[in-house]
Amino acid sequence: MRERAAAAIEEGIELMLAEREADPNRSLVGRLFRSDA
Asked: Which helix (H) or strand (E) holds 34?
C-alpha cells in the first residue's frame, strides 16, 4: 500500500514537472518552483 502511494505521488510530481516545462507561466506552482531555481 505504502509503495503504491509513493509511486502515485512520484507520478504526480513528474506530471506536474512536465506541465511546468510545457507552460511555466500557466500555474502558480510553476512560478514558485522557477523562482527557487
From this structure: helix 28-36
Q: How many CA atoms lie within 13 A of 26 on its CB side?
A: 8
Q: Which tens digit of pLDDT belongs to each residue from 5-18?
A: 999 999 999 988 88
Domain boundary assignment for the chain: 2-36
* Cα(27)–Cα(31) distance, integer angstroms: 7
Q: Compute how many other C-beta atoms are within 10 angstroms of the C-beta atom of residue 19.
A: 14
Specify the residue for cell string 514537472. 17
- Predicted pLDDT at 34: 65
Digit-coded pLDDT (tens) for 17-35:
887 776 656 666 666 776 6
